[in-house]
Amino acid sequence: MTTPVYLDNNATTRCDEAVVEAMLPFFTEQFGNPSSMHAFGARVGGAVKTARAQLQALLGTEFDHEIVFTAGGTESDNMAILSALEIDPGRDEIIISAVEHPAVLSLCGHLEKTRGVKVHVIPVDGRGLLDIAAYRAALSQKTAIASIMWANNETGTIFPVAELAELAKEVGALFHTDAVQAAGKVPIDLKSTVIDMLSLSGHKLHGPKGIGALYVRRGTRFRSLIKGGHQERGRRAGTENTPGIVGLGKAAELAALHMADEKTRVAALRDRLEKGLLQRIPNAFVTGNPDERLPNTSNIAFEYVEGEGILLLMNREGIAASSGSACTSGSLEPSHVLRAMNIPYTAAHGAIRFSFSRDNGEADVDRVLEVMPGIIEKLRALSPFWQGADKAPATFNPVYA
Amino acid sequence: MWDYTDKVKDYFFNPVNAGVLEHANAVGEVGAISCGDALKLMMRVNPETEVIEAAKFQTFGCGSAIASSSALTEIILGKTLEEALKISNQDIADFLGGLPPEKMHCSVMGYEALQAAVADYRGVEWRDDHEEGALVCKCFGVDEGMIERAVRANKLTTPEQITNYTKAGGGCLTCFEGIEAVLGRVNEEMVAEGLISFDEAYRIGAMDARTLRQKARPKGAEPAKVEPKPIIALADIERAAAGTIVLERPVEAPAAMAASATRLTTVQKVRLIEKTLDEIRPYLKLDGGDCELIDVDGNNVVVKLSGACVGCQQASMTVNGVQEKLIAATGLPLRVIPVK
Ligand SMILES: Cc1ncc(COP(=O)(O)O)c(C=O)c1O
Ligand code: FES
User: Fold this and answer.
1) What pTM value is reported for the model?
2) Domain housing B277
3) Whole-complex ipTM
4) CB distance from A3 to chain B under 8 Å?
5) Domain match, B112 and B139 both
6) Is B35 tagged catalytic?
């Protein structure tokens, strides 16, 4: 029995034992409500404050009260955009990139349909880089908010958010960034930027699921999405998920400690895997921008094979990764990210994302390098298009196409 | 991960009859790489007996597409062409112990490839069997004939099933009306032929294209033509809710708004707005500002802010405040637009 290899850390990460340990007392003896006047509440309130400071440190924010705890990345994204639309009726346009997470994309699609909000979707090029000219052109006095992700979850491509935020400020628009994939993997120092809001999620940085945070710069006008009590200074009602908050704080602290490891050792693992696969497997290429990328992510397209088959065969070998292919998601089209990048269909269906974390080691890379060539070869042997390495695909004369 | 049966997994992991068949005399190719799956079925048919003596396949596609193709070759081996033509896509799915509903199109692809291979053997253009070959879904290259066959063979009665069985409608969804039209017509014929009951048949317009499962796409996701039948204008209610900073009437508000919205005439509405503004004005004046009504266009209330409000940091706060008061007073999903 071989040990399983988990290379799907952009989907979710293993919760760190130290995080779980930090959380446990807050389910039992530390059960108080942080809003209460008595000692039970005060102790828990202190722990929430510590967590806020831990996030402040990870994100380099000026004040700890700029952190609002939420129920995850999706909620943070929704909160930021919906708030921006409320604060100034003269501004009712949104700018996003074509490769945002559904937490942003489908919200904006909904707003466009139901509220007539104008949504500018900025295209990306073949490497996933944002069309800055189009972004500039879309910005206007009508822009309520520009929301561009810090790093893309499928390809790891990093966007120049600090600069994009400056441009948004020039027209007086708010700037939000979905940093769910970036937080904990690359250094972030918000106080040196003009970014107004930033989303992150606990379960992507070895913290618990269902907890996240939204950074809201001091002085940024904000309307709460969830109405109720005065928790989180009226910005997010509902009794705090105290175990989750404590866990997220601990996870943020650990992420900061491991940041150097991520940038060096983890990146080296990723690079070795990538090089090794490209050497061993013909007709494969890296998607996204290898120069500006999260240190943990590699997205490789294998031509003339379909991703679901690859994942099923990998799974049988105990290797977990994910795919931009249509079949795996229940949708019939390949991922919107790869389509936005104009990756040819011959390759987009066979794109596999490998995402590392500090839990991975050299043995994981060895294992994947050992089995991947056989897997791709097996599927290519089945494929009516495959003619051999670097040969044009077989012609195919379907009765319907 | 999909909930595949053990048999599907087995045929995927250890496919039988995979590869190129030498001396094939019946070849059927369906699908395309852009659609995400494609199947080439190769058979050797005995010219004397018309028995399928050998069959092999090559498939590009997901696990269930490969399993369905392999299963198909096993099913048809040793059968005469006549017998083979009686095989339905459901037979392929049943052979595998069933397929997830979203994956039924894999079995349909097997069925279509078999039909195409037999036509190839007989030297006829298979497509010619069907007069109505109009392309319905451009994204997946699905024509009317294919939809009709899938509807008849599997007694389909919803657009969603058509997507599951043929993929048509699984992309941009601009073909929704086309799919509906074919489904409506074929179901009607099936009712007349006693194949399905009147109640089961699909009625055009019964389904909103939006409810079809689809990936997020902010722009042009749906054809503008497919308008849902609005009972209450959702957009207006949401807009009203968006303008409400402090919700004083949280839950009942939208319903009340919609109800009164239908009752007021335009004149009544304008009067009510003026009256409300008059009530707010003293408060604005306290801060050295004023608010003048310029126009009422539908639910848009155009106002001119003057005095201390203009240019002040709080201008839009004021607008929100005014909007909130107006909504509260009129019960209408109003939107206040300030002009200079
Ligand atoms: C870029 C990005 N944004 C948002 C999310 C959603 O975060 P959560 O799962 O915490 O709601 C994810 C995770 O899937 C993500 O990758
Ligand atoms: S034309 Fe049918 S889904 Fe696009």
Assistant:
1) 0.75
2) 234-339
3) 0.83
4) no
5) no
6) yes
